[in-house]
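Forgive a beginner's question, but would it be possible to get a protein, spelled out as residues, together with the matching structure tokens, please?
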Amino acid sequence: MKYRTLTLCLTIFGILLTSYLTYAHITASTLPCPANGTAGCDTIIASHYAKLLGIPVAMYGLAAYLLIFFLAWKKKTRYVSYVGLIGVFAAGYFNWIMFGVLQQICLWCEASHLTMSLLFLTNAPWKWSRTLVLFVLAPTFGVLISVLIA
């Protein structure tokens, strides 16, 4: 697994993000949202779409990141890409909910979606995926992180 260190670092970042989102959802905390104050993040986290079977969707993301971390630690690259692909499809669905249905944006959620996409592409079996990560998604990820920190 050539990109194991990158995978483990991205996974730790995803675990931190989804832990924060889960905590905010469970405690009904206000999420500071760099995009538009608090309106977008709070609207999304308070919507009925933020739970699946009574469990916050961020907790599902946390479980996925923990599973990916375990698989990466055990050097099971193929399974990392499978879980990552499921995560990418879930991120696509939640992006549709955010932008299409709720018409809001949560940069915390987007950071998690982008992290999952990077994890999938980093571990995908196709050679072009790593080029895409290095030259397209990685700079986007950097911009998103700088916006969240600012």
